[in-house]
Amino acid sequence: MKLAHLPLRLATGAYILNSGLNKQNLEGQAAEGLHGMASNAIPALKKMTPEQFGRILSTGEIALGAALIIPFVPSALVGAALVGFSAGLVQLYLKTPGMRNEGSIRPTPDGLGLAKDVWLLGAGATLVLDGWPKRARLQKPDA
Q1: Does residue 139 form part of some domain?
Q2: Number of domains observed in the structure of the chain
Q3: 124, 23, 26, 20: which is closest to 62 by C-alpha?
Q4: 87-126 residue pLDDT tens
Q5: CA gyration radius for the chain?
Q6: What percent of the chain has pLDDT over 90?
Q7: Residue 94 to residue 31: CA distance in whole angstroms
Q8: Cβ-count burial of 123 within 10 angstroms (0-12 exposed, 13-18 middle, 19+ buried)?
Q9: What is the pTM for the complete model shown?
Q10: How far is residue 64's CA from residue 72's CA, in Å, rounded to a whole number?
């Protein structure tokens, strides 16, 4: 891991890890609300119970958050995982009614909480692009 990646990885990792830890015992109305919103954006999630969804989401967030914090996990790899995770959050924002102004991608006041997750997508893309292995440089033959 590059030293320059440390602040980005620590900040995003701690944020996501905390979110996952807070969802560990999600049940009842809280689980139903989260599951309902997610399954509206991603219909395949309707096959799960709210409690199953909460456990899977919690475990995924804990794993992703820890991977971001652990320095020996390659930045390109953890960045790709962050892109996948945040793409789901952006999809949730784009597909949930009332989150955006009519005919726009600009958030409504209710949508600000989800719209802000676009920064995670940018962070993941930055880690992927900057952590991608560089091609071997062509060297000039000695003349």
Answers
A1: no
A2: 1
A3: 20
A4: 999 999 999 889 999 999 999 999 998 888 899 999 999 9
A5: 18
A6: 77
A7: 21
A8: buried
A9: 0.86
A10: 14
106 within some domain? yes
Q: Are 19 and 54 in contact (CB under 8 A)?
A: no
Our measurement of the distance from residue 11's CA atom to the centroid of its chain's CA atoms, rounded to an integer in Å, reads: 13
Beta carbons within 8 Å of 74's beta carbon, 6+ residues apart: 1, 131
Overall size of the chain counted in residues: 143
Q: Which one-letter DSSP state was computed for residue 103? A: T
Domain range for 119 is: 3-131
Structural domain includes residue 50:
yes
Q: 3-state SS of 36-52?
A: HHHHHHCHHHHHCCHHH
Q: Which two tokens stand for residue 63?
A: 């794993």
> Distance of alpha carbon 6 from its chain centroid, rounded?
17
In a domain, 142, yes or no: no
Cβ–Cβ < 8 Å for 62, 117: no
